[in-house]
Design brief:
21% helix, globular, 81 residues, alpha+beta
Length: 81
């Protein structure tokens, strides 16, 4: 499994939006990649990982848990959040 990870270069302080995003291949569907991103707000009061898969949107986000795609990216990067 290959994960494409993008980290932007250093930006001014007021550009706190998406810090890291990655395309993770789906485990159940062929030729489908899910977008995983780490987002922060301006005051750092919201810092979280998000994924566009159905499992995260409909089940995990309500329970404040991560899907397998987010876990894969965090394993590759280490703890940055």
């Amino acid at each position: 499994m290959s994960i494409f990870i993008h980290r932007p270069k250093s930006e001014p302080r007021h550009h706190h939006r998406v810090r890291v995003w990655a395309y993770v291949p789906s485990r159940s569907r062929v030729n489908l990649n899910h977008l995983v991103a780490f987002i922060r707000t301006k005051n750092d009061d919201v810092r979280r990982w998000v994924c566009d898969c159905e499992d995260f949107m409909f089940r995990q986000i309500g329970q404040r848990r991560h899907c397998n795609h987010i876990k894969d990216v965090r394993r590759e990067l280490g703890q940055i959040a």
